[in-house]
Amino acid sequence: MDIFFVISGFLISTIIFDGLDDGTFRFITFYSRRIRRIFPALIIILIVCAVFGWITLIPDEYEQFGKHIAGSAAFIPNIILWMESGYFDKAAGSKPLLHLWSLGIEEQFYLIWPFILWGMRGRRLTIFIIILSIIAASFLACVIGRHDFPVSHFYFPQSRFWELMIGAALAAITLYKKYIFSAAIERIEIFGGGQSKIKNLQSFVGGSMIVYAAFNITSSYIYPGFWALLPTIGTYLLIAAGPEAWINRVILANKGLVWIGLISYPLYLWHWPLLSFAYIIKGSRPSYIIRATLLLTSTLLAWGTYRLVEKPIRFGNYSKTKVIILLALMMATGGFGFWISLEGAPNRFPEEIRTLLSRTYESAENPKSSLGASNDPKGPLLVTWGDSHSRHLAAGLAQLQQDRSFRFTNFRWDYCSPESRPFDQCTYPSPVAMDKIRQLKPDIVILSAFWFQYKNREQFIRDSVRFLQQIHVRKIILLGPAPFWSDPPRLLLYKAYKNDPEHHLPDRLSDENPGDAAVEKEASDLAKQLGLVYLSARDFLCNEQGCLARIGDSLIQGDLTHYTPTGSILIMRHFAPAIFDGTNN
Fold it and tell me: In the chain, fewer beta carbons within 10 Å around the N or the C end?
């Protein structure tokens, strides 16, 4: 999208500059044109996606999707996506409107930039200074803190406006360079221009930068940042070289590429939803053949959208009427998205499965359960130590306190400073937790974590156990991994229900992550080596038919790994004798 940001900044700024110079610029005219350009195809995409979502998404997925529809209609999808990012965020492939983050940034730019230029009209040198200042400030915001806050830097407009402003700078230089630069500097032909050899070299360098970025910048890079200079500066150089440069004249002016350019906006809108819904339906990344077919389909749909919808509405008569209708349709579409976001329209589903699918995931973590939560303050002290997979035991432990006398609390296993990266670059075990545990002198410690995500888990466990042995903890328990599902259990249950000819709803599922069993064995073997009590959740929940996913209308796990309160209570009741055997409880 970096290329299109620069192009968009150049084209829009050129339109505004021309209008301000000849006195014809009007905000209502400018925004009316943007509405007729942007709204028609976008409304169609949002409606089509809403229909497909109605058919394919379960309530909690459709509820989230409703937020995306409403956010896209309000041109703030980048903000919505940023708010959703985090530990429980879904895979990119399962978000059909993910690509609209860039459209949100463009529209936010359109809401600000025309007013700045209008306020500075006639002050050409001042405009150029403002452009350079915005580029510098925005790029600085882009690179500072990108390691600590990569998601916000990706989605926030202040970290992206510099890319659009590079295009604005090119527009200003192209139109006003004789007012901005002295004659001596102008003769040097900086910023491109000049003889054909220079233009050809300029376009070649620009094209090479774009090609290099396309094939070498991968998801492992923290982006945007310095790497974003490659496609943005490359695009600047290509445009600045002008239509006479060989690459621009021969390659980019090719009829096929020009045709792609004409349908580029609807093609951008169509391609990702098709790929995403294929990912959702299949449950994994589609094959190359399917992806190629979908890309061809998106091209045909883009051509049809351009010819039958975009072009007739964008051009021709009745522009005011068109704008009013488009605004009303967009508001209605956003309103429908907001309605979806309330509950996910659960009544779409048969009654026998509706309750299970509609049950909002409730965390089993209970921060109120603490040292004082016991009917016997002299009972043994139990500490759960780990990540969220130790905290989701709280609901089950709190339930056990109705029958057993003990106290319990939880501590984080890891310590991550603001400069640390997730997981393996944090400190294990946490020195803060170690100090508190040393002071409390617990009788029982349960080590529980999402072991799958830690590459150095064996060493972390060894270090934690060594510390606990040094402070003479009477019983150290290692809790094995919870079943790690390929998709949320409610989604897997719905697929099983839908695919069964008799619509039988199973209790057990077998769609676990392939590496789950290996982690289980590793943890079990390590517990034996260290002389720990080992509790296997998978041995309890799973058999040859699969792992228990539900009890009646209650799920055992609400997401890929975490227990619901029902699951937490079930697990803790089962393991209570092993946990408290030999202790005063």
Answer: N
